[in-house]
Give the backbone structure.
Amino acid sequence: MENRWNIKELLVWTTRYFSERGMDNPRLEAELLLAHTLGQDRVQLYADYDRPVNQEERQGFKELIQRRVRGEPVAYIVGYREFMSLRFQVNSRVLIPRPDTETMVEKILDLCRGRSLHICDVGTGSGAIAVSLAHYLPSSRVVATDISEEALSIARLNAAANQVEIDFHQGDLLAPLQDYPPLDLIVANLPYIPIDEYRALDPGVRDYEPVQALLAPGDGLDLYRRLLPQALDKLKSGGYLFAEIGYHQGMPAQEMASGFQQVEIIKDMAGRDRILKARKG
């Protein structure tokens, strides 16, 4: 790189560099990395388009570019991911929130907006689902569980940063809630990727995101087979279960939910099976 660069020139160069390497969203990723380097938000980059970037800043930016090219996800590099228009701290102890999970949260909001409910997020990870529901359903009570205390520490930070109150519990599935009253809604995004699919994942996912948040035993649905009987016991009559599943798991997911009265498979934005929605009779 030459000695004198401004923000615009760095963005143009980095976008081309990322594009040549076949990376998705090259412009967005260039903006996120440069904004992080300069301690600004992305909007400010455009306001300061002609601002010179000094050698120390360029060196820091170069190091982030190198990390990204090696495969490290941008969310881990900058330390956060936007989800449901909220910001969530993430690191290698938690899964990076996905747009498909936003689809599930939006479906829940369509069903529950304006109501006062008792909700549990099972396997909360970063807390993205629980915090979003607590934020957009402010009169509801939200509780969340995770088997990983490390993940819960991140979820607690995200709840505090987004100014919502959530009751977090460490433990397996719904086991920590044995003494809780019945629930109106249970939502879960548990690991559902079987070993053969896990081995074929993009290295940026497989080599950086926590294996325990992705890899599931058997055909990928074993954890849900354990959760569904617990959910039936814990839900109120008329209560709902929402669960994110793999694109090829719609039919077996419907079959394992046979104890529920109404069962539906909801498609994701690409038209693939993604969400199990089940209502208790």
Q: What stands out?
A: The CA atoms of residues 26 and 168 lie 37 Å apart.
